[in-house]
Design goal:
By secondary structure, the protein is an alpha+beta fold. It has 2 helices and 4 strands, in the order H-E-E-E-E-H.
Length: 82
């Protein structure tokens, strides 16, 4: 009976340790996925269209004038394409 109790305790201890380790590994995976999603979201930027040549460019590189979006000051000066 003593050996049976000893083996039962050892088996329960191994199961407990493996469960704790797998839980920690899952948390690390979730944290990495969250960081990756945050990085991807930070890297993406809204695209806008030039009112003259109709190309798309990132909003941070666009030129705003006359209530429109342009890809360069030259296209803003030329105005809308006819």
């Amino acid at each position: 009976m003593g050996k049976f109790l000893l083996w039962a305790i050892i088996i329960l201890a191994v199961l407990f340790v493996s469960r704790v380790l797998s839980h920690q590994k899952a948390q690390a995976r979730q944290a990495a996925a969250r960081r990756q999603a945050d990085d991807a979201q930070a890297a993406s930027e809204t695209m806008v269209r030039c009112a003259h040549c109709r190309i798309y460019l990132p909003r941070s590189e666009a030129y705003q004038s006359q209530g429109k979006t342009w890809c360069s000051p030259e296209h803003a000066r030329l105005g809308l394409r006819k």
